[in-house]
Amino acid sequence: MTAESVPTGLWSADDVAELTGILAARRSRLWQLTQPADLAAWVFADPEPAPLDPPPAVLDGAWTEGLDEPQRAAWALAGWVARMTMPEAAPTAGRHWLLSQVNGGHGPLLRLTVGVLETLGVYEFGEEVWLRVAAAPIGLAMDAGAVDLEEWGRRGIEMLEDRTKTLAEEKMLLTCPDIDTAMWLLRQPPVVAAARMLNAWVAAGPFSFESRYRPEVAGRAWQAAETLLAGAAPAEVGGERGFDREYAASAVSSDLPTQRSFDADAYRAGVSEHDRLCEALIDHLAAEGLRVGAGLHGVPVDLAWRDIDGRQFIAEVKSVVGDNEVEQLRLGLGQVLEYRHRLAARGIVATPVLGVSRCRDRAWSAICGDNHVILLPGEGTPHWTAALTIGRQPDAGVATAAHGDVSLERDKA
């Protein structure tokens, strides 16, 4: 990593400069290995893991004998996080961080301790993963629309109250229900930046656990991470199915905020309506022999599928509850256009679909048509068939199905 590295995308040189100043204010033996400016640039750089060689300990390939698949995955994830989010990961092992194997509330736990803070916990049986990250990168990504909290909720990712005192107001505690979900989360660049930022800060502080360091634990996880590093990158997820995973209904917590500005009943109604619309479209396509899932190549589309000719479709589904019709249409169109752009940047051509509970304003048929988006309002499933059929014709523009009647329009631009 070099101080001359220029971050791209969400981050700017100002972000690097600000973090450099924060780190430079700390007196740390970490500066024997790197410098504050280099470390700040690394935090925001494109995620790359520390190389396998040199490892923090001598590697022993036979140690995995007797481990089942969840245990192998847990060790791999722990090593992946250490190699991806620890500054100068190999030379700082045992001096600024350690990986320990302890008995947690749900069984054996692999725990990453950086400085004075535990920043990762992975249960070996794979049923839970927790992660502490800096709040600032996540907040910036949310403001830029690069983090979809609804998708996090669908995957069972939760942000919990963190009772640890270190950087109490400046960090988040995230939990994932399983290792696959944790890997999905950790492959998001804003989350990697958030994990790196927190680890950089605490690694530059005191570390009083050197006597507890077991190099063989760090070395084994380091080696196990190769199974993940050799696997599919986010752009390679999805395969031939046309989606990343099976669709699952959103989970709504029973303990929702009670502020006056938050209408819990309306929120629950919106989530229920969203899932009803998704299931209706899934059932409609299933009747035509098409299998539908969610997500595509790491992009959090609501639904995705391939038609009988192998063409890729993606759908953003928006519930209309009360008087939020225009707001939902605007939001949904913006999202599906963003997703199409992100997939196109990865070489994936997808036909975008916007599904909504209702659409009273006929101008939206033309608005979507101008943007080559198929509009599917209401539950007019016979009309959906016509719209999607025209939408998959190579020379067609966009088909839109108007609520209550059929309005099929071809873009003549």
Q: Would you give an account of this structure?
A:
The chain is of the alpha+beta class and 413 residues long. It has two domains: 13-231, no CATH class; 245-391, Trna Endonuclease, Chain: A, domain 1, CATH 3.40.1350. The protein contains 14 helices and twelve strands. It has helices at residues 13-24, 36-44, 69-85, 89-92, 135-143, 149-154, 179-186, 189-203, 215-224, 226-229, 264-286, 325-345, 363-370, 381-391, and strands spanning 97-104, 107-114, 117-123, 129-134, 158-160, 171-176, 245-246, 293-294, 303-306, 312-318, 350-356, 374-377. It has a six-stranded antiparallel sheet. A four-stranded mixed sheet has the order 9-10-11-12, with helices on both faces. A two-stranded antiparallel ribbon has the order 7-8. Strand 2 (107-114) and strand 3 form a beta hairpin. Helix 1 (13-24) packs across helix 2 (36-44), helix 3 runs parallel beside helix 7 (179-186) and helix 3 (69-85) packs across helix 9. The longest helix has 23 residues, at 264-286. The radius of gyration is 24 Å and the shape is elongated. Mean pLDDT is 81; it is low at 1-8, 232-237, 251-263 and 393-413.
Structure summarized in a few sentences:
The chain has helices at 13-24, 36-44, 69-85, 89-92, 135-143, 149-154, 179-186, 189-203, 215-224, 226-229, 264-286, 325-345, 363-370, 381-391; strands at 97-104, 107-114, 117-123, 129-134, 158-160, 171-176, 245-246, 293-294, 303-306, 312-318, 350-356, 374-377.
